[in-house]
Amino acid sequence: MVGLQGAGKSTWVAAELAGNHAVVSKDHWPRARHREARQRHVVAGLLAAGRSVVVDNTNPSAAERAPLVAAARVAGVPVRAVWVDTPLEICLARNAVRPAERRVPLVGVHAALGRFEPPSVEEGFARVDVVRPSPDLVHATGDPVR
Ligand SMILES: Nc1ncnc2c1ncn2[C@@H]1O[C@H](COP(=O)(O)OP(=O)(O)OP(=O)(O)O)[C@@H](O)[C@H]1O
Ligand SMILES: [Mg+2]
After folding, report:
1. Which of 2, 4, 86, 108 is least surrounded by Cβ atoms within 10 Å, i.e. has the fewest?
2. Cα–Cα distance between 146 and 138 in angstroms, integer?
3. CA 25 to chain CA mean position, Å
């Protein structure tokens, strides 16, 4: 998964993939040390066991996605990127109405935005899918920022 905080990644995963994929996310261990290494270890283990895996993090840059592409290559399975491309204004509005314990600090959203690079097949993805909110939602929630 690729997308800013509040874009709707976890919601999309729950609706589309959770039935037949193991869902891995560093958010599952918010206070653990070495979360990145732990996530790579878990993903590699699941792939080695033959499971389909979805990694539900912001994954904003090619550099952050590269270890996941590499893990798929090692396991000999195809990997796709699903970019939940929700306008920043909507991400921020959704984040603002989250319960306090699930709200992401603004600086975190802007950090992800600053590192953001659209996923591309040149990174090694067999497919890049883009999920966008319906125009109705965009109009209802605020002007899209592009
Ligand atoms: N398609 C949608 N339409 C309306 N609201 C949505 C939609 N998808 C998600 N939301 C709402 O937006 C908020 C953020 O969604 P979600 O938790 O799925 O985002 P996320 O991309 O996983 O964020 P994070 O990176 O912080 O985990 C939630 O309150 C969710 O209910
Ligand atoms: Mg999420």
Report:
1. 108
2. 12
3. 9
What are 3-50's pLDDT values in tens digits?
999 999 999 999 999 999 999 999 888 888 899 999 999 999 999 999
Q: Is 59 in the pocket of ligand 1 (CB under 6 A)?
A: no
Q: How far is the CA of 75 from the centre of ligand 2 (A)?
A: 25
CB-neighbour burial class of residue 107 (10 A; exposed 0-12, middle 13-18, buried 19+): exposed
Tell me the residue length of the chain.
146
Q: Is 94 in the pocket of ligand 1 (CB under 6 A)?
A: yes
Domains of the chain: 9-141 (3.40.50.300)
Ligand nearest the Cα of residue 7 is 1
